[in-house]
Amino acid sequence: MHTAETVTLARLPSGVPVQTTAHVYEPDDDTDGPTLYVQAAQHGREINGTEVLRRLHGRLERADLTGRVVAVPVADPLTFDHVSYVTSEPIDSVNSNMNRVWPGDAEGTLHERMAATLWEFASDADAIVDLHTGSPDMLTHTVYRQHDDASRQLAEAFGVDLLLAEAAGEDAEEEWTKRNFDGKLRVAATEANIPSITPELAHNKQLVEPAIVAGVDGLLNVCRHLGILPGAVETWDGQTYRNHLGRVTAKTSGLFVAREDVQLGREVRPGDHLGWVYDPTKYTVLQEVEAERAGVVYSIAREATVTAGKTLVGVALPLDDVAGDDLAADDVFGETGDELDI
Questions:
Q1: Cα Rg for the chain, rounded, in angstroms?
Q2: C-alpha–C-alpha distance, residues 271 and 331, integer Å
Q3: pTM for the complete prediction?
Q4: DSSP letter, residue 270
Q5: In what order do the strands lie in the sheet with 254-258?
Q6: Nearest C-alpha neighbor of 129 from the set 98, 105, 167, 155
Q7: Helices marked H in the chain — which ranges?
Q8: Which residues pair with 38 in a beta bridge?
């Protein structure tokens, strides 16, 4: 059985309501099974998850369910309408990023109120999947909270090849506190003892078929894992890495040119050469971009105009943080002294 509810998340200064739709799929009888909460488009330019839920809709309508699925295809209509990652300052100057304020505050800023409204649905669930979308050149992957076994099992059930374990709270690096990551939905959920994962489904602003298929298959597998749908989940045989610690950032502003042989999925060692940041007016190389830790490349910045601090290459670290010399010699990109070829 499927029902759809219009949910008022907040109101704008003019009195216009900010609304979205919550879809509920449940058994036709009184079967009391587990509940999965899934949402998409917290960040409005991340639209693959919204298409995933549209396609999942048809599958769940026809399915013999033994539990409930609550799906919100557009969690943040304000960013969705503007195809943006965050809201503009006039909308919420304090909390422009909705995924930094969970579980929200019914009397707080606009985004805090929106999160609090959706948290009423999410907090009743037995598991949460928060669908996101990465940058244009990024491996599809799933993030879960490190050391949370139930969340890891959920991530493995989702089934993509790459998992990223993200430390949180006291276990996290200093950057966690600076960027207010404790307010992520995934973190708030695990703090409330609700297993939660964040799949990152490839490109933003574009509907990318392989990422959408991975999302639909992943959610069906999560439903099987929870017992909402019948059937077994195949044993996961991918790789698990650490999130964030291996990112290579711009030390100065300029134009970033990645080496041609820097490809997604490649393994790197400390000192491997990844590209250059150069002065666009004087043509001088400002930074020889090098890997600082051993790991696998999961994202590459393709928007070449960069400012200091921007992530140029995302390197996921092995979960056990193995030393760089454990990688095969033929995985090395080459020497660092190659000339900039533009």
A1: 21
A2: 12
A3: 0.90
A4: T
A5: 285-290, 273-278, 254-258, 305-306
A6: 155
A7: 48-62, 77-81, 110-122, 149-158, 174-178, 185-191, 209-226
A8: 71, 129
Q: Are strands 267-268 and 295-300 parallel, antiparallel or unpaired?
A: antiparallel
Q: Are 121 and 71 in contact (CB under 8 A)?
A: no
Residue ranges of alpha helices (H) inside 227-296 are none
Is there a cis peptide before residue 90, judged by omega within 30 degrees of 0?
Answer: no
Query: Contact, 15 vs 8, CB < 8 A?
Result: no
Place of tokens 């058994």: 27
- Tens of pLDDT, residues 266-278: 999 999 999 999 9
**Six-digit token string for 125:** 């669930």
Tell which phi-psi region holds residue 172, choosing left (phi > 0), alpha (psi between -120 and 50) or beta: beta
**Position of tokens 């960069």?**
306
First to last CA, the chain: 58
Q: To which residue do tokens 């999130």 refer?
A: 243
Please name which of 140, 113, 126, 118 lies closest in space to residue 73, comparing C-alpha atoms.
118
Question: Count of CB atoms within 10 A of residue 182's CB?
Answer: 15
Q: What is the pLDDT of residue 177?
A: 65
Could you tell me the CA-to-CA distances from 314 to 268, 285, 299 in Å, in that order?
A: 11, 21, 5
